[in-house]
Amino acid sequence: MNNDFLISIIEMDCPICDKVHKLEKRKRIAQSIVKDEVVNYEEIYFLCPNCDEEENEFVPAGLMDENLLRARDAYRQEKGLLTSKEIVDIRNYYNLTQVDFSALLGWGDVTITRYETKTIQDETYDNIMRLVLKNPMFALECINKHKDRFSLEKYERIRKSIINKVEAVGNLYLKIQEINSLYVNYYEENDINGYKLLSIEKVANVMGYYAQFIENLYKVKLMKLLWYTDSVFFRRCGKSMTGLVYRHMPLGALPIGHDEIISLPTVKVVDEMIRDDICYRIQPDKEVNISEFSLEELSVLQLVATTFKYYNTKEIIDYMHMEKAYRETVPNQIIPYSLASQLNALK
Ligand SMILES: [Zn+2]
């Protein structure tokens, strides 16, 4: 495989032949040693096309630092650590300078600057930075604890910016914790979760997809659509799409955490009275980016959506009641995916 690409041609002073002429700026996969380990990374370099000798390439000093950073980031990615760019993103999320972010965490003034430019953070520090991003309440705790590191004006400004995030996503963080806590026992890939660990993000995207494309969608129907989605995907790929675990309930298959997942931000729930009953109508909220689905996933989503588009709640329940997965399980029992894959229709 060719791993060496031309990025651009630039006229500049060539240090190899000591003349101004056109040079090739190129990119290739190179290897570097980071913390005693070999990593592959994208190296950028210049090539002098006028020179036939072996020494026909060079890396200017500025670019050398960039290459080093890319090598370290490749190492970080391999180890599941935040990359320098991701650390910058967390900081920007709360409008913090490098020094502010360090102060907020109670670290030395230059710690964050080092992480963004050269040093690789250890796992403990990495976890703390991730938590600040995921849980704005934690960020708020941090700033209160290290209040004395800021001027009063700055403290107020940063605090306000964190509070905005608490209001925007704090609730979501708690919701996700709640869902995760319901799934603590399903930490292994097996027949119960369709050989996939729960992906809350995927659940949110799948729900958002149906909310976007199906009118008159109610909660009960959405829950059946989730089950069909996972089951068809399992039959095709040997894995469920979301990792949800479903129980046999009177109205058909119902995922564990069904009340919690409908609070995810891709959908909104509107209470409606229909013949003296409260129904939960599902509407799209945050737009779902279709490109986040693989082609295989999209094909299943489309199949399920077109098959059940015009089914009302009762019709889809009746349909589900005919499934082997329903007939061969008892109330409250978890429906194993091996049964779910033997569907009536939806080939
Ligand atoms: Zn040259």
How would you sum up this structure, described in words?
By secondary structure, the chain is an alpha+beta fold. The chain folds into 3 domains: 4-63 and 71-78, no CATH class; 84-168, no CATH class; 185-341, no CATH class. It has helices at residues 61-79, 84-93, 98-104, 111-117, 123-134, 136-145, 152-182, 200-213, 219-237, 258-261, 295-308, 313-321, 324-327, 337-340, and strands at residues 4-14, 19-34, 37-47, 57-58, 246-249, 252-255, 267-274, 277-284. The strands form 3 sheets. The protein has a 4-stranded antiparallel sheet with strand order 1-2-3-4, with helices on one face. Helix 2 (84-93) packs across helix 4 (111-117) and helix 6 runs antiparallel to helix 7. The radius of gyration is 27 Å and the shape is globular. The site of zinc ion has 7 residues, from loops. Zinc ion is lined by residues 14, 16-17, 21, 48, 50-51.
- Count of runs of 4 or more consecutive helical residues: 14
Give the neighbour order of strands across the main sheet: 1-2-3-4
SSE arrangement, N to C: EEEEHHHHHHHHHEEHEEHHHH
User: Strand count, sense and closure of the main sheet?
Assistant: 4 strands, antiparallel
- Into which percent range does the helicity of residues fall? 40-55%
- Regions with pLDDT < 50 over 5+ consecutive residues? none
Tell me the fraction of residues in β-strands, as a range. Answer: 15-25%
